[in-house]
Specification:
about 300 residues, alpha/beta, Rossmann fold, 2 domains, 6-stranded mixed β-sheet, two-stranded antiparallel ribbon, about 15% strand, globular
């Protein structure tokens, strides 16, 4: 007689962890289908919010975006499983459905930047803030009205994308925005250095406002200010001016980064590390800091 088939061992079903992410937030509704996988949801949550916070609403390819993720491959695999249905049905994800709220109308990082700068102006009796914008125009995209593509009216772009709007801020401190297109480093740096003597009779904050901040150890891009550029601007500033630099978070691993970057800036300027002060808005945007130092 044949032996009876062996009983299959019953395996207890895995308990599903409930995601603690705020999927009820209307900002995340377009990706609500991903909410059942915490790892994928966590990654997509961070990615989407980083794009919205930087006001980058271009469509993006989920596969390419996932490839840029710095987390471990196992997490990427989990993300892939999570996004499988979305990727196959709609490989390019559009951010056109995100709500327009006052949080995005003026980026919360602008609140930190200009809130800090005006407070510094009060503290140091500054009469002018000179913003070096490192401006690089982005594509605004097209409108589709009744299935026909149309350009966004220039008046709308001028209102929402005009860097010089801040110059009209209601403050006794004057604001000058230096906003030529940042394409060639050498030409741009020469123009900045040529601009500074025009304000030699005024106490100024010279605010370097690149997309990301000070250069990394390797492969700096136009998102960064080079150490040599910061040093040359610092040298050209007069005594009593204040040097300020915008810095975005340099890693996503949770490791400390603010003090390390401050030390690198101090070394670039040739001043003691304790001379670099820090300002931030941790409850507004914890991934941003302004470094500043007073030239005496």
């Amino acid at each position: 007689m044949l032996a009876p088939p062996a009983r299959r061992k019953r395996v207890a079903p895995r308990s599903r962890r409930r995601s603690s992410l705020p999927w009820s937030d209307p900002q995340l509704q377009p990706v609500a289908r991903c909410q059942s996988v915490p790892a994928g949801g966590r990654w997509l949550n961070q990615f989407i919010h980083s794009r919205v916070a930087s006001r980058d609403f271009r469509p993006f390819n989920l596969i390419s975006a996932m490839a840029e993720c710095t987390e471990e491959l196992a997490v990427q695999d989990s993300v892939a499983r999570c996004l499988k249905g979305v990727i196959h049905s709609r490989p390019f994800f559009s951010m056109e459905n995100f709500d327009m709220r006052d949080t995005w109308y003026a980026d919360k990082r602008d609140l930190i930047k200009w809130g800090v700068l005006l407070r510094l102006a009060e503290s140091y009796d500054v009469v002018r803030i000179l913003q070096v914008a490192y401006y690089r125009p982005g594509l605004c995209g097209k409108l589709k009205i009744d299935d026909q593509e149309q350009d966004i009216p220039e008046a709308v772009i001028a209102h929402f994308r005009n860097l010089r709007t801040v110059a009209s801020i209601a403050s006794k401190v004057r604001v000058t925005v230096f906003d030529p297109v940042f394409e060639d480093r050498a030409t741009y740096q020469q123009a900045v250095l040529a601009l500074l003597p025009a304000y030699e009779q005024e106490r100024c904050i010279v605010f370097l406002d690149p997309d990301t901040g000070l250069q990394p150890h390797s492969r700096p891009s136009l998102d960064h200010v080079l150490n040599s550029e910061a040093a040359a601007i610092w040298k050209a500033m007069k005594s009593c001016d204040v040097f300020a630099l915008y810095q975005h978070q340099t890693n996503r691993t949770g490791q400390p980064w603010i003090e390390n970057k401050a030390s690198l800036l101090a070394a670039a300027l040739g001043i003691p590390p304790e001379a670099i002060k820090k300002a931030s808005g941790p409850t507004i945007a914890p991934d941003v800091v302004l470094y500043y130092t007073h030239k005496t």
